Fold:
Amino acid sequence: MSSTRARRVVVTAGPTREYIDPVRYLSNESSGRMGFEIARAAAERGDQVILIAGPVHQETPEGVRRVDVTSARDMLQATKDAFLGSPGRSVRHFGKDGADVLFMAAAVGDWRPKRRRAGKWRGKDKGDEVASLELVKNPDIVATVARQKADRLVVCFALETGDGQRRARRKLKAKGADYVVLNDESALGARLTDVEIIGPAGIVDKLVRRTKRVVAKRLLELA
Structure:
């Protein structure tokens, strides 16, 4: 998909939060650094960039339009607007034609509480020693947008433990993405990372103990 023209790039970054009550939520340890580095590198090469960020403490890269979201459903809507297109003019999207490339680097929560309590959950006040929380599945953002991507590029991430490569290949096929970037839990919050870039035909590249900025620049070569 390489071209000399400026591309319209959407990047997602960071965790999502799913609130149990007004003060408690389900989330993860993602710092958002990888996604922010991709957005920074894309802007530096002259691309138009929308960065959809979960709750993180990262400075917005110069030249990047940032959209802050909280939940997985918030991120889904913002990603659909920016990547697939939405009428009108807004910082949230590029207009009705959408974007050329999506880097789905966010660590989106798989589950959310079935209901969010209006007040603070006070199970312990009743003397309960065990509590249960009913969860429902969140929407799959990559699979949802990839079904409508046409000839646009979708790159997703897979944080896996154990036999990660097999699961990453399966994820690539199931979600309909063009590439999957495989890493493990050591990447969370770290400055250096190990990744394998996997396409339909197998491993495209493997980067070991590289900064996330170096990895970001390599990923942009896919587009």
The chain has a mean pLDDT of 91. The chain has one domain: 8-109+139-220. The longest strand covers residues 202-211. Helices lie at 33-44, 72-84, 141-146, 164-175, 212-220.
